[in-house]
Amino acid sequence: MSTSIDSTLSETRSFPVPADFARQANLDAEMFARLNQQAAEDPDRFWGDLARRHLEWAVPFQLVLEADQAPFYRWFADGQLNVAHNCVDRHLRGASRHKAALIWEGEDGAVRTLTYAQLHREMQLFANALKHQGVRKGDRVAIYMPMVPEAVIAMLACARIGAIHTVVFGGFSAEALKDRLEDTQARVLITADGAWRAGKVVPLKRHADQALLREHGHAVQRVIVLRRTGTEIDMQDGRDIWWGDATAAMSADCPALPMQAEDPLFILYTSGSTGKPKGVFHSSAGYLLWSMLTTRWVFDVKPEDVYWCTADVGWITGHSYVVYGPLANGATVFLYEGAPMYPQPDRFWAMIARHGISILYTAPTAIRAFMKMGDEWPRRHDLSSLRLLGSVGEPMNPEAWMWYHQTIGGGRCPVADTWWQTETGGHMIAPLPGVTANKPGSCALPLPGISARIVDDQGNFVRAPDVGGYLVIDRPWPGMLRGIWGDPARYLENYWARFDHRYYVAGDSARRDADDYFWMMGRIDDVLNVSGHRLGTAEVESALVAHPAVAEAAVVGVPHDIKGEALCAFVVLKHRHQGDDRDELGAALRAQVTELIGAIARPDDIRFTDTLPKTRSGKIMRRLLRSIARGETIVQDTSTLEDEGILQQLGTAKKS
Ligand code: WT7
Questions:
Q1: Which residue minimizes the CA distance to atom 20 of ligand 1?
Q2: Which of 69, 72, 143, 656 would you call most buried, defined as having the most Cβ atoms within 10 angstroms of its Cβ?
Q3: Under a CB-based contact definition with an 8 Å cutoff, are residues 103 and 333 in contact?
């Protein structure tokens, strides 16, 4: 990657906190020091105070952290609250009642605004509709929707009645949806006829119908369908109901059900190095506290901000920083429905000017793509409303950082490069805009209460600067995942086993510089990062092998100037298919991956080969394939290779 240790090691620029920003920040240097001290001295008191101060409880908690079943930690477990109450109802008092909670712009340019009072009403109507369809506390509800206000309303309605939502990104295929419906055993699926994407319709309901075929092992009894694109669809009698009909006779009064702090709020699937994506689940109170606090600290959200996180609600970024974090803070959240460059490359900048957006949170892949389009697009618009910029998903290469800071931020906005994961619930390592100087390419320091460390192979702390190692978290935090849905053993194995359950192992490597700033160095497992989204190589490989012509496949990442990483697949064909047309097969395999996972998993490069390089014990030599895919000279030890001739065939000669 362009953000490899070599390019960032030479990065020495530092941008101090602008004085006028520091003066008005939610968190200043003095508070930061005090919070860090409290967290170190008495973590229970630190977290307990924050949870009491920032959340409204139906039943106050006495216990802060329970660690007797560690690493199955429990936070505030004897307390009760409702997440939707905290995100909506509590802002109905006073002036915020009629402030905009959501400002939405459709891809076609339509604009809709929902005040907190209106959001409160819509959420209750839909919560009653869910109840009417038989949804009870603890039931799972799947949401497969476009980026429209109803997606947010559906999530909050679930939270209000204690249903556990699982949002499936609208770009995922029918097959991916099917897997998630099976794994969660969701009773209700909420979808739309279609979604707008670059002027075209993504047929969500048709995908849903394919996922819901009777022979599949799902438990869906009811499908609620929002009309968005007007696409012709099949409505199955007795199963499918329009959103409008489901809410028509409902009352707009649905009390928020107090939930135990540890009751799951949602399940969200994310890729790992083996098998199918795993269902990470989060708690109600601890998750809400962490998404809320990090929004307040890292984005410095204020009542007068218009805040925009460009992520889809199908990702954790959309959960924590489109919905729960900003709404818990009573912010005005901007939502955009469609494709970033539609109808032309200035769509983002036009919307920032049109809506007076003051905080923008997006991903390096988008920044690089805009950068490539040229400065004339942002220059056409007045971006002076912006006061803070954020980034997430992968390391920001210093070039992209500088462009974001100068061309978009006019050199005056602090940049928050936030490191975190689906599992962490919220930001973990990030600069605080009123406290921490920015270094382009670094995500700066752990947030108060977060104990991030770098350890070596043996699990010893690495204290020397600029020495890479495993990134681990050695103390629990309220926003941490509570497990893998239905698979506690996998939770232990995946995140805790590597160092005897002593640390949460993130799966990233990192180094710290002499100022203790963290610099992320990428994944240490077989997980790829394509456009800021996590993809397991095993997942893509199994999609390829599912094709009748394929005997074996191995997928590796290669650097890509916009996506960060792109996929390169090495494919071995079954004997009787070896004469097949390679171009046609390549196209068929790409289509197959799109169908089984989604377009983001489509390999850019497919190379056919007779065998894969394996060790004598039969393990695929991935590192070797990675070098081959990148066109590098082979420096790895290939003496364990089963068949040295394979290297010639893969188009590279071993360096002697
Ligand atoms: C992985 C988590 C958390 C929302 C986005 C993706 C990488 C994320 C950064 C960053 C360097 C980053 C890590 C991490 N990552 N943010 N600011 N700098 N790397 O969530 O799909 O759970 O992926 O994304 O490798 O482990 P996710």
A1: 421
A2: 143
A3: yes
The answer as to whether 106 is a domain residue is no
User: What's the mean pLDDT in 309-315?
Assistant: 98
d(CA 415, CA 413): 6
**Cis, bond preceding 71 (omega within 30 deg of 0):** yes
- CB atoms under 10 Å from CB of 243, counted, come to 21
Comparing CA positions, the residue from 393, 139, 365, 402 lying closest to residue 266 is 139
CA distance 354 to 469: 45
**What radius of gyration do the chain's Cα atoms show?**
24
- CA 280 – CA 271 distance, rounded (Å): 10
> Which residues fall within 8 angstroms of residue 294, CB to CB, at 6 or more apart?
320, 325, 426, 427, 430, 447, 479
CA distance 516 to 436: 12
Per the domain annotation, does 79 fall within a domain? no
Of all atoms in ligand 1, which is nearest to the CA of residue 316? 4
> How remote is the CA of residue 427 from the centroid of ligand 1, in Å?
10
For residue 401 the two structure tokens come to: 């950082």
Residue among 483, 450, 489 nearest 262 (CA): 483
Domain with 598 in it: 530-655
Query: How many Å apart are CA 203 and CA 656, to the nearest integer?
Result: 54
Angle at 389 between CA 388 and CA 394, to 5 degrees: 155
Check: complex ipTM more than 0.95: yes
Q: Which residues contact 654 (CB under 8 A, 6 or more apart)?
A: 634, 638, 644, 647
The pLDDT tens digits of the residues spanning 545-593 come to 999 999 999 999 999 999 999 999 999 999 999 999 999 999 999 999 9
Give the count of domains, the chain.
1
**Three-class SS string for 553-620?**
EEEEEEEECCCEEEEEEEEEECHHHCCCCHHHHHHHHHHHHHHHCEHHHCCCEEEEECCCCEECCCCE
Asked whether residue 113 is domain-assigned, the answer is no
pTM given for the model? 0.94
CA distance 245 to 225: 10
CA distance 482 to 33: 29
Does a structural domain hold residue 34?
no
Residue range 44-56, pLDDT digits in tens: 999 999 999 999 9
Query: What 3-state DSSP class applies to 476?
Result: coil
Which tokens sit at 218? 């799902």
Closest CA to 341 of 306, 320, 365, 315: 365
Q: What CATH number is associated with residue 617?
A: 3.30.300.30
For ligand 1, atom 24: residue with the closest CA? 393
Protein residues with CB under 6 Å of any ligand 1 atom:
270, 316-317, 392-395, 417-422, 443, 506-508, 520, 523, 529, 532-534
